Structures
1.
Amino acid sequence: MKDPVYKTVELTGTSTTTIEDAVNKALKRAHKTIKGLRWFQVTETRGSIDKGQVHQWQVTLKAGFEIQD
Amino acid sequence: MKDPVYKTVELTGTSTTTIEDAVNKALKRAHKTIKGLRWFQVTETRGSIDKGQVHQWQVTLKAGFEIQD
Amino acid sequence: MKDPVYKTVELTGTSTTTIEDAVNKALKRAHKTIKGLRWFQVTETRGSIDKGQVHQWQVTLKAGFEIQD
Amino acid sequence: MKDPVYKTVELTGTSTTTIEDAVNKALKRAHKTIKGLRWFQVTETRGSIDKGQVHQWQVTLKAGFEIQD
Amino acid sequence: MKDPVYKTVELTGTSTTTIEDAVNKALKRAHKTIKGLRWFQVTETRGSIDKGQVHQWQVTLKAGFEIQD
Amino acid sequence: MKDPVYKTVELTGTSTTTIEDAVNKALKRAHKTIKGLRWFQVTETRGSIDKGQVHQWQVTLKAGFEIQD
Amino acid sequence: MKDPVYKTVELTGTSTTTIEDAVNKALKRAHKTIKGLRWFQVTETRGSIDKGQVHQWQVTLKAGFEIQD
Amino acid sequence: MKDPVYKTVELTGTSTTTIEDAVNKALKRAHKTIKGLRWFQVTETRGSIDKGQVHQWQVTLKAGFEIQD
Amino acid sequence: MKDPVYKTVELTGTSTTTIEDAVNKALKRAHKTIKGLRWFQVTETRGSIDKGQVHQWQVTLKAGFEIQD
Amino acid sequence: MKDPVYKTVELTGTSTTTIEDAVNKALKRAHKTIKGLRWFQVTETRGSIDKGQVHQWQVTLKAGFEIQD
Amino acid sequence: MKDPVYKTVELTGTSTTTIEDAVNKALKRAHKTIKGLRWFQVTETRGSIDKGQVHQWQVTLKAGFEIQD
Amino acid sequence: MKDPVYKTVELTGTSTTTIEDAVNKALKRAHKTIKGLRWFQVTETRGSIDKGQVHQWQVTLKAGFEIQD
């Protein structure tokens, strides 16, 4: 079966600094247990607020990887 | 890495009585194998019909939990 | 033609008590004239308000049934 | 100007018991400061989880009322 | 607990021939490790292009299965 | 009244072979009782699974026809 | 059964002049066979073009009416 | 802080004549208490029906204005 | 190749008077450079506000035309 | 500037046989004037009906290509 | 009434530098008049362009706070 | 014809660093051939992954410009 099949997982990364950092935090953590992560798509950008400033960015994304035989 | 990362799973709970019961059935079952479930979001409410009444509520939800190291 | 074909109708059930009751009211009424209702999907949950409380739940759903020959 | 104009506010009610109770909690609280609430529409049903059961239902809704002169 | 609970996984099947083949490729691969797959829903149809023709169909779907005790 | 008015019905066709066949099955069945079907739009592609292969394609579509006087 | 149940039909009205006229054309036609039409919601506004001008407005709407016993 | 911040309110204007009139009715009323309304976006077009004709257009819109210091 | 292929362009027409006029303004302008415009679909209705009235209607639409050989 | 930039065009391919053929017809035609088409995404599947069968499949897709310097 | 009720407001923050800065500008301004802002969700990211570069980021978000007694 | 008409193009900018940089890359490139770009709206944020980190941000946006006579 030469046609690859991919699976998607939904993750939420968090960061106190930027949206990009939250995405990278999520991918770095997923990389520990999932091999071959290939692409992602941001599906939601939320966060918590403290004293009128963003306290924590919470970025949800779908990340896809090829299922290995 | 102090910023937590969460994963989401999509479940469908069923119940012959209420929407709330279907959600709780799904969470109770997931709790057996997933530690640290934190929040959920209902994404679809469907069901089967028998003799002009709801036979089974089928409630789909996303449930999030923190990925542990 | 052995492959079944289904039709969907959109209904709004109402109730002064619960969402589940509104769905059942709609299905019970539809059952009087449509045979073979099989499944439903809730598409909207609205209602009217009286004195700061829900006066009437208005739950819209699609209900499917097999078209008979 | 005889044609009425309405305004919508977005609220999130919470409850440890049912979705209906969360909606009523939100409407009861809004009723203290807004006169003439007329209709609502549920836009999101979420919640927090504790020990594999729903800890708190969080139901977001839009509620409309007529703007008085 | 007699009410069944289902889990959904998101997969992307690929094929050089048809949309149907891409779906079947995804299901065939998932079937190796997941027992009791019951239903699917196509959520996205994409693909890559080579010389003005479809090179690879990429069909994303959600597939549901009953969680066994 | 020279401006035509159309009505839309929602159907789900099924097939064990292809998406196109499921659509044609639905249209063929609807054609028995509805005259003047003009256009359709696919709104959902689902199916049931058996032994890791598509058992039945379930394609939902809206079909429009002109209301005759 | 005092709680009313409503049904929705989807119609497309057409007009060479305005969106409002297309909606009224659809409602006028539906009124011939459906009693008790109560509300509508516009779901799509399309049209055909001739010589760089709108030739025909095509406005799709859902119209609801109470199901009578 | 030179970068402006805007707030959005959701309104529903009504009219017995046109969609445009319903929007203007909503804006005229909001203008009495909100200074600096800048833009709007129509989010829903509904209405009530009487004797097969539109009785009242109900047009929902979001209107944005700059928050003043 | 007898099966026609169409292309869609997205335009925003503006008008100080009506939604219909904004659509016609967009089509009239596009007609200067694109031959064979066939259909359109309104995708957004926005506008600017001046003194509590609509100053400019901004109607976005997709317009399709057949690609000529 | 080493980071590539892509442009997307929206096309509708037609076919009397299959969805796949309609997509390929659109890509083949676009390939005549656009170099470097890389990926596509199906956004709508419609069609015309004749005598209770699909007369013409109309498949809308977005196709992306790299903008060359 | 121990179950908290939340209200959501929709804001658009602007910035010449980053998306994050636009969000923080909106929250900082809202904090002046609203106590207890708890969470936010980004709903739209737009901007104005000048000479082929982003001139102003315009980020719309919903921000929620607990209604105090 | 004093009412301006705008056209929208859909672009995907890429960057190895930030979302903002990807947007600016797309606008800078489009500016070479399109005069008068006025506004943009981000419609999708995706990317490729390498070794558990974002390799390339891929940000899709619609950019609008006034059609000149």
Note: The mean pLDDT of chain D is 96.
2.
Amino acid sequence: MTKFLRNSWYCAGWSTDVTDNPVGIKILSEEIVLFRTSDGTLAALNGRCPHRFAALSLGCIKGDLIECGYHGLQFDKHGVCRLNPHGQGKVPPRAHTRSYPAVERDGALWVWMGDPALADPADIMDLYFVGQREGWTGVTGYLKINADYQLVIDNLLDLTHATYLHPNTVGVDPEHSLGASLSYDFKTEGNIVRSNYTFRNSPPTALFKPFYPQERGDIFAFMRWEPAGALLLDISTTGVGMPKGTGVHMPSAHLIVPETEQTCHYFFALSRDVELDNEAKTKTMGEVALSAFIDEDEPVIHRCHELMNGAEFFELEPAILETDIAGIQARRILAKLIRQEQPVREAAEAA
Amino acid sequence: MTKFLRNSWYCAGWSTDVTDNPVGIKILSEEIVLFRTSDGTLAALNGRCPHRFAALSLGCIKGDLIECGYHGLQFDKHGVCRLNPHGQGKVPPRAHTRSYPAVERDGALWVWMGDPALADPADIMDLYFVGQREGWTGVTGYLKINADYQLVIDNLLDLTHATYLHPNTVGVDPEHSLGASLSYDFKTEGNIVRSNYTFRNSPPTALFKPFYPQERGDIFAFMRWEPAGALLLDISTTGVGMPKGTGVHMPSAHLIVPETEQTCHYFFALSRDVELDNEAKTKTMGEVALSAFIDEDEPVIHRCHELMNGAEFFELEPAILETDIAGIQARRILAKLIRQEQPVREAAEAA
Amino acid sequence: MTKFLRNSWYCAGWSTDVTDNPVGIKILSEEIVLFRTSDGTLAALNGRCPHRFAALSLGCIKGDLIECGYHGLQFDKHGVCRLNPHGQGKVPPRAHTRSYPAVERDGALWVWMGDPALADPADIMDLYFVGQREGWTGVTGYLKINADYQLVIDNLLDLTHATYLHPNTVGVDPEHSLGASLSYDFKTEGNIVRSNYTFRNSPPTALFKPFYPQERGDIFAFMRWEPAGALLLDISTTGVGMPKGTGVHMPSAHLIVPETEQTCHYFFALSRDVELDNEAKTKTMGEVALSAFIDEDEPVIHRCHELMNGAEFFELEPAILETDIAGIQARRILAKLIRQEQPVREAAEAA
């Protein structure tokens, strides 16, 4: 069965990624082209020209239309061919390409890959700290992960890996954290999984240290996953014994988008609520996060993907720890949602 | 069914490509080795040594024989092993490799991949302007295209793409060509397809500009395709209203040779009939053409191939324009010829 | 049927390759991790963590245990999880990974990939000249070959290729060896194949020349293959007419280890019994050998693999010369041993 959930909003870029030219991105193994009409509205079409199958992302924008760079056919935001520049200019009936519901919000671009009738922008994750929001400053970024996207969700829903994989970036070195104590709890509400970690009396991570001068503090790391691949990590470091929400607050979004069955896009946004004008610290904050993702996470996740060698996760009979609960529940919810959206006949065969 | 036509002459290189050493090239997914016997005659053999399957192209020439570089077996131009240097020197019956009819003409090397009994050198495309022919000067070259060869034939048989893809090299920028008018007609004669374009009152292309000083002219671009992949493009730029053949003449050959189902060789020759001694302009002419093919055509065609994702062209239900007629006819002729040369049983099954 | 013999010792590295950190290597398409316990004892485990399938080679050593770098599970040399650092610390029953019999001897690390009950260290090839043995000096090294491992065994069991492929390194240029004479004989004893070459009155190879000043000599090159992929080449150059064993002696081991069906590891050791303290000559000796393997053998063998295009060797109906006897016998012995170790049902189906 497919590994992809179609009825879902997927991040396809940051607002600044799409300006005057079309931009291509592969999502769920499907070629998508993004562009803006003359008033700046985002449009998303299947990125393969229906004429000779050229990539529309290699074309250009003419007013409200996207022009194929190969033979000049022009399409509107609904994917309808509006100009055939050749001969009599007749537009043949097959000259249309699929359009996708597309929304721009909070500095992020979202595309709905499933049934357009089911697309509800209210389902898009609320990135309240991104896109020039008052009271926040931060960075957005992107990396490619050479692995099945579910392995990245697994990674993010079990933050205990930060101690081992990220001791000098976004985690805490266990050798300097004697006396710290970790507690966690996992909750599933409908199709949303939460995974909350509280480290009491811990040294701050390298990411927080520039903003939190004390040697010890309480770290609250609350992760929230929404299918298919949107994760919101709300981290704050407070004085020891202080309630969550006081101290320094550094929320981040981790938007994991299947590119193929072997690769995924990882869009991230990371903001903070202190020292809003300190651009040097903002730059460093972005570099530390990106290094943690690219230099620390990606190689490990990529090798997990390789060592699984195409097998399904549960087929391999993993040893399951209590810290895996959130990841396991997310996998079950995803599998259920994917199964539910299959055509009736397929679903019957699967049963 | 295979995508390859076996009973056809394929260009395997330019005369200058094969000198003192054997040269390997893959054609129709088959390893070929080219070499010259002591009198310079071209020979073409299957390039896999029948002993231990080494690439004969890694060997060397000993007189009229090609010596395998691995264990020293020597083969003549018929593929017969003439020397086993080991022990008693007995040549085992399996020690032969297939030979292919090979012809050198007009500075090009041609190999016949099909039934040798059907190989007729008269069928080789007449490259009347290549190979030091009196009255012409020009360049030859090569590039690899990462796409099914038929996509390159499609490209060449529909020259309307030049306006969009090559406005600064071999095409005309539409913004500077107001007042120009294009007409075209397509003809099929037997298995040959012609696709003729006439641009009246057009600015000259960058390729012609150094040789044609007027601001406007009539461009005659006459393309002729011969199966499987030989195209001859006869372009001339004349004074407005003058007959074809006057003015500057710049014919070119585009010899498209399947390497595998995913890649093809593109041998090209481009000549002109003016300023024969101007070597600087010849060099620039070659650079402009190569850049158009490598920097403009290849990336688009390669992406078409990727976006087709292994599907057959007609299965994907392309939107067909009137400018596609020549390409469509070439595809149908190729399909017919490929079908006809299949063994009887296979052909019956296909019916 | 699989191409791999499981019940065999495979070289997994040189002693110096594994020190304070775990090291990963793929053998028979299986991920292995090597590490040393606190007393230096070698351990070999399946390198995929049973928890989330991370590569254990990315982890670190904690005393006698290997710690997974992803979530910190620790395993002993038997592959048993001894520490789950999370929550209650319960170790789930699936938290174990396979261990392999591992032996360190003569400076080489060996792993038994088959039934542990059949692992007998007495079957490991005797590398009497490696690992600081008295009376010898030399080098060890490694390269990757992009080909099925049996093609490398073929290569080594037919030394006549050295004349063609290695005339300036480990072979003799035929143009300078007029008057030399070669004789050879092949013997099979049980599952061991010997392939002995005697070149009388030959110029020395480039490898021997720095140690053997005469212009001519007798070269004795005695190759011994033990399944699956261990070859011992005993070469000596003596005065013309002198018995083998006099003169300069330069034995070498060639340990060919399947990585996948398309690639193999090539561990080599090369020693000599003269000028033991001349480190400059030892360095040169190693460079000449490595160059012969990497620059001369690998490209040819890799192309053989490509041109065989996945077919079985005998299916391709090779032309067999008398010099192929040893290689053919090794292939037959390997096929027999692989067949014998298949489960009974599989063996019955094959019959």
Note: Chain B is about 20% helix and 30% strand.
